[in-house]
Amino acid sequence: MRTPRSADDVFAALADPTRRELLTAIGARGSATATALASDVPVTRQAIVKHLGVLDEAGLVSGQRHGREVRYAVRTQRLTEAARWLEARAAEWDARLERIKRLAEGG
Amino acid sequence: MRTPRSADDVFAALADPTRRELLTAIGARGSATATALASDVPVTRQAIVKHLGVLDEAGLVSGQRHGREVRYAVRTQRLTEAARWLEARAAEWDARLERIKRLAEGG
DNA sequence: TGTTTACGCAACCCTCGGGTTGCACGTACC
DNA sequence: GGTACGTGCAACCCGAGGGTTGCGTAAACA
């Protein structure tokens, strides 16, 4: 089975600790602007903007403009998709190993 | 909530497409050596060895020596742990957004 | 014993991306 | 209007790590 295109982005996005912190921070606030998040995470607003761009690209976050500010909220769909993907692989490989084990035992 | 130490390694390990391909390849074979995997993935055996090191460090794979070769198998536990982590976050944030939404609607 | 094969170690290259600073622009508010 | 604040854009720095080549070592087998 081919890894779906989005999995690349999602896992790559989740790979960075700062981005996971950002997701947590946004989740805790419900929604937040890049400037506000700068007080939650020890990096520059610009760095946060870049991270939000990556998260947005991965579909993990979505921003909406209100006047001069942009509020970001977490999108959970891709997250659960990624979780499902992991679980499916784990189950698949578990089953295969079990089969091999039974064969090896001369069943 | 603090991201558990292992999540760092797991997501970082899963971030690389080549490593996910390796996991898939190992899973498909049941178990495999670095040399064998070199024919599944378009990189050098040495690169694969490095990747297997990362996967091993993350607890996603475990190697066992048999004579002069080392066979690697997938370990699914960390995988399911990561899946659980994602699902928990998704559920948590979904609930919070739902609450906020109800409040905003003046409920 | 000689040859083949699988592995381990080390050095090296080079791109990618996380982080920064600096500044320009637009929107809110007085 | 002027001022303050939030964004957006661009250039730059620099370390991490994915990839390579080269070589040495040890096990399997004739």
From TrEMBL, chains A, B:
Name of the protein in question: Transcriptional regulator
Lineage, highest ranks first: Bacteria, Bacillati, Actinomycetota, Actinomycetes, Micromonosporales
Domain of life: Bacteria
Annotated ranges, domain HTH arsR-type: 1-94
Native source species: Spirilliplanes yamanashiensis
CDD domains linked: HTH_ARSR (cd00090)
Pfam families: HTH_20
A GO molecular function held by the record: DNA-binding transcription factor activity
SMART domains in the cross-refs: HTH_ARSR
